[in-house]
Amino acid sequence: MAGISPAGRRRGSLSFSQRELRDLAVAWIVLSGAFAVFLTGPAAFFAPGFVDVVVLCVLTVGVGFMLHELAHKVVAVRFGQQAAFRADYSMLFLALMGAFVGFIFAAPGAVYHRGRITPRENGLIALAGPVTNLVLAAIFLPLAFAPVDFLASAGAFGVFINVFLAAFNMIPFGPLDGKTVLDWSKAVFAAVFVPSVVAAYLAITRLGWLPV
């Protein structure tokens, strides 16, 4: 059911086409698998512990990626945009193949939106993804101290991957979210970018929170 936004534009309901659901599912699975291979190495592909790492990546990398993109879509639709996620299958293939040779570059796709929009609304749409990752990092944090090894690993890696995703996407360059946010508001950009970078730095250099 549609409503009217404060700016007088018709606000659409959140819906997903079959293609979009397929793209989200493929990107979630391939990206999670690529990270699992990257973390364990191709030699461990058939090792018993590899399945645990795959599940861990599905619950951390996959969830972080999916909710980041869905946050973009939800806010875009709230502002009356037509929005949909589209997977980049060439980049997903590159991520998977790169993982087998020891590097990973993850750009699985993006939410594309169109319609009339203000700079503030565009900035808020971009900001929604990184902020969602920061919220997820806070949710994962208590699990990092759980007495169960798998939960502790999921919590620790969930914090690590989400602060990394937030910091990376807030870089003010090219198509990344940070460039759009900076163009809208320098103050808001600094308020999100600086904590994200500090959190990512601590997770990488001080905590050493990796699942393997």
UniProtKB/TrEMBL annotation:
Keyword annotations of the record: Hydrolase, Membrane, Protease, Transmembrane, Transmembrane helix
GO terms for biological process, alphabetical: proteolysis
Membrane-spanning intervals of the chain: 21-39, 45-68, 89-112, 124-143, 150-168, 188-209
Keyword Transmembrane: yes
InterPro entries linked to this entry: Metallopeptidase_M50B
GO MF annotations in UniProt: peptidase activity
Domain of life of the source: Archaea
PANTHER family linked: ZINC METALLOPROTEASE MJ0611-RELATED (PTHR35864), ZINC METALLOPROTEASE YWHC-RELATED (PTHR35864:SF1)
Protein name as it appears in the record: Zn-dependent protease (Includes SpoIVFB)
Protein's organism: Natronoarchaeum philippinense
